[in-house]
Amino acid sequence: MESNTYVSQVITMTPAKRSISSKMASWVRENLLLVMTILGVVLGIAAGSLARTIHYTPDTVMLVSFPGEIMMRMLKMLILPLIISSIITGVAQLDASASGQMGSRALAYYFATTVFAAVTGIVSVTTIHPGSPTMLTHTTLDVTPLIDLDNKITTSDALLDIIRNMFPDNLVMASFSSTKTVYKKIRPPASRGNESSESLNETVKTSLEVEATVNDTLNEDKYERSLTSSEGTNVMGMIVFCVAFGSLIGRMPQGKLMVDFFIILNDVVMKMVELIMWYSPFGIMSLVIGQIMSIEDLRETAQMLGLYMLTVIAGLFVHAVITLPAIYFVITRKNPAVFFRGMVQAWITALGTGSSSATLPITFRCLEENNKIDKRVTRFVLPVGATINMDGTALYEAVGSIFIAQMYGIHLGPGQLLTVSLTSTLASIGAASIPSAGLVTMLLVLTAIGLPTEHASLIFAVDWILDRVRTSINVLGDAFGAGIVMHLCREELERMGPAQPSIEMLDKVECGMIPTHTPLAASPQLSPVSPMRGMPKDLMPLTDKGNGQLSWGHHPERSPTSETQI
Question: What are the start and end residues of every segment in region (Disordered) (predicted)?
Answer without folding.
Answer: 533-566
